[in-house]
Amino acid sequence: MEDSKYKAAGVNIDEQDKAIDKIKSIVKTTFTPDVLTGIGSFGTLFQIPEGFKNPVLISSCDGVGTKLKVAFMTGIHNTVGQDLVNHCVNDIFVQGAKPLYFLDYIATGKLYAGVVEDIVSGLAKGCKENGMSLIGGEMAEMPGFYSEGEYDIAGFITGIAERDKVLTGEKIKPGDLIIGLKSTGLHTNGYSLARKIFFEDLGLKVDDYVDDLGCTVGEELLKIHKSYYPVLKDAVKEGIINGMAHITGGGFLDNIPRVLPEDCDAIIKKDRVPVLPVFKFLIENGDISEKEAYRVFNMGIGMVCMVSPENIEKFYSLVKDEVFEIGVIEQGFKKAVLI
Amino acid sequence: MEDSKYKAAGVNIDEQDKAIDKIKSIVKTTFTPDVLTGIGSFGTLFQIPEGFKNPVLISSCDGVGTKLKVAFMTGIHNTVGQDLVNHCVNDIFVQGAKPLYFLDYIATGKLYAGVVEDIVSGLAKGCKENGMSLIGGEMAEMPGFYSEGEYDIAGFITGIAERDKVLTGEKIKPGDLIIGLKSTGLHTNGYSLARKIFFEDLGLKVDDYVDDLGCTVGEELLKIHKSYYPVLKDAVKEGIINGMAHITGGGFLDNIPRVLPEDCDAIIKKDRVPVLPVFKFLIENGDISEKEAYRVFNMGIGMVCMVSPENIEKFYSLVKDEVFEIGVIEQGFKKAVLI
To answer: In angstroms, what separates the C-alpha of B136 from chain A's closest C-alpha?
Structure first.
């Protein structure tokens, strides 16, 4: 195919084959015994795990957004896969799902096997950390779509839950405590605004060290989106969480109401939120109103759990992570209120 | 949010909300009774359909590739969703799966609610034609990633099959007939090369009428990728197909071997292939070798079925579509051979 017309049109099947060879062994390390087919078949077979009486599937799909631009700027491509996986895991875990398998979509203008290998390494690491199989994906070379050295990635997750144990939030009631778990940083939200402030307004480079952050701009902005499945799965299994919300785009204000009953409000006490230095830095240097900051960013809390006071001690004993009691559920109208 | 900093950074949550409002009702029309949650929850719940003894899930993921550029050039955005859905359906149907549900990823630089509505209309139409639910998706606004008016889309499909009825190709044996079903055109493969020939080499515009094609360039290049599920599902149910291959990127030569046993070759008789006018046009005007054409394009056959001679009459009676006996399985080495 060296001098083929297809290659002249910008598509290099040989480089694609090289990339597939590189990622085959990485991907296989994620396979659980429920994966029934290997790489190369059109679709991938996955058996429904044993032990469920009335299982339901819970699926979601997401991207990493413009956090990818930071990967391009730093040349670090082996963490965005973890961001993608962990974001997707959190999105189905808030409904009580155990993650089963993951598929990825990687699109680029010109395919470099080494970059694909880095991306897939991150995906595989994320999958393994969540006990999940990376069962397939699509690698699309699309000349003229993406700038040189750039790409986009999306992920698709499928999990499973016992139908009568799905977390819908309907068990949430006035008096429940709102427990927040720390985020690592921006996770995967608010990057268009954060990049504007860091790189355009302040003219910083990814390698610049920022005292307030204790690291370089690139290090701060590539901090990996945390998966809360490993630290919260035991508490979910015990049935002592009444509802969970993943704090993504839209912040507390948009995400918590998604799981609230019609007659409940979530009262968030701002002085209880462990606001991370990066958000203080962005608010100050970006001249952002506090209200907008709470709508765009997670502010330092990546996941909230609503827990009845009678279960709180058991919750604390099961959760091996720093937790913050940031608010309480009150009678209301399905709103999150910052006080 | 009119004057928000986030909007100034290129992200408009209000336009996203508008787009979500527009697509809500469209998406709901695709829901089968197995969809247990509506739009707005973090993940979507789907119950495993009744009637399966030992069900396995079959999943796949794909994009539309640079066919999207033709959508941008023509301003027609309501067909690429069908391309995406049908491509994904075929990829899992070749293993005997019944399509269950679909999720989409739509990424763009600047979000226009009307364009998103068109894309999702196509996705919903494709889903309904395949008896499948469009249960969720991600709409990502990524300033600086995509050129003005451009976007990328990816799809994730999940289907189900009875474990002992999964089509692996292992039943294929020497003497089986290779039956091809017509494609509508390029489907979703070879677009980088085709666009180069039409638009760069020949300098044609999407509105130019081409006598050899009997339509405009835009009409030809937007012909919808066909789903073979509706026309072949009865034959699959009857168990009279020994193996199927979806003819996508890589053509006959790469795709048929994926389902062949180690000791079988697929002998394709070129004079039996109903080569579509668009491929003759591309070969002639693009100065492409026949060998490369068969590796890049489907040439007019979008799906092949391997069928035992004793089942062929029943196959013909069950398949309500034009079929072409394009070859035969012989003893060999897992290769597709053009003669």
So the answer is: 7
User: Which of the two residues, A23 and B84, has the higher pLDDT score?
Assistant: B84
Alpha helices, DSSP H only, in A31-94?
67-74, 80-93
- For the record, the structure tokens of A85 come out as 């996986």
Give the closest-approach CA distance of B138 to chain A in angstroms: 5
Closest-approach residue (CA) in chain A for B72: A145
What is the C-alpha separation between B184 and B301, in angstroms, rounded? 8
Hey, are the CB atoms on B192 and A246 less than 8 Å from each other? no
How far apart, in whole angstroms, are the C-alpha atoms of residue A99 and residue A58?
A: 9
Angle between helices B80-93 and B67-74 (to 10 degrees): 160
- Which of these, A154, A60, A65, lies nearest to B105 by C-alpha position? A154
In chain A, residues with a C-beta closer than 8 Å to the C-beta of B97 are: 43
Q: How many CB pairs under 8 A join A and B?
A: 239
- Rounded Cα distance between B175 and B171, Å, is 12
Strand A98-108 vs strand B44-47: parallel, antiparallel, or unpaired?
A: unpaired
Contact between A135 and B59 using a beta-carbon 8 Å cutoff:
yes
Is B63 in contact with A105 (Cβ distance < 8 A)?
A: yes
**Residue A130 in 3-state DSSP?**
coil
pLDDT tens-place string over residues A62-110? 999 999 999 999 999 999 999 999 999 999 999 999 999 999 999 999 8
Chain centre distance of CA B262: 27
CA–CA gap between residue A140 and residue B186 (Å, rounded): 16
Cα separation, A120 vs A102, whole angstroms: 12
- Contact list in A for residue B95 (CB cut-off 8 A) is 41-43, 45
Residue A145 has its nearest CB partner, among B1, B36, B152, at B152
Please give the structure tokens belonging to residue B168: 């692996």
Report which of B183, B166, B88, B68 is spatially closest to residue B130, judged by C-alpha positions. Answer: B88
Distance set, CA A37 to CA A32, A44, A227, A254 (Å): 11, 6, 27, 40
CB A306 within 8 A of CB A252: no
Provide the residue type at A159 as one letter.
G
Cross-chain Cβ contact A196/B9 below 8 Å: yes
CB B192 within 8 A of CB A9: yes
- CA-nearest residue to A90 within chain B is B42
The C-alpha atoms of residue B89 and residue B97 are separated, in whole angstroms, by 9
Cβ–Cβ of B92/A246 closer than 8 Å? no
Query: CB count, 10 Å around CB of B245?
Result: 26
Range A236-241 contact pairs with CB under 8 angstroms and sequence separation of 24 or more: A236/A93, A236/A96, A236/A167, A238/A314, A238/A318, A239/A165, A240/A307, A240/A308, A240/A311, A240/A314, A240/A315, A240/A318, A241/A167, A241/A305, A241/A306, A241/A307, A241/A315
Q: Dig out the tokens for A55 from the structure.
A: 């299982």
List the end-to-end C-alpha distance of chain A, in Å, as a whole number: 65
**Prediction pTM value:** 0.93
Phi first, then psi: give them for residue A197, nearest 5 degrees. Answer: -70, -50
Domains recognised in chain A with CATH numbers: 5-165 (3.30.1330.10), 177-338 (3.90.650.10)
Mind listing the pLDDT tens digit for each residue in A252-302? 999 999 999 999 999 999 999 999 999 999 999 999 999 899 999 999 999
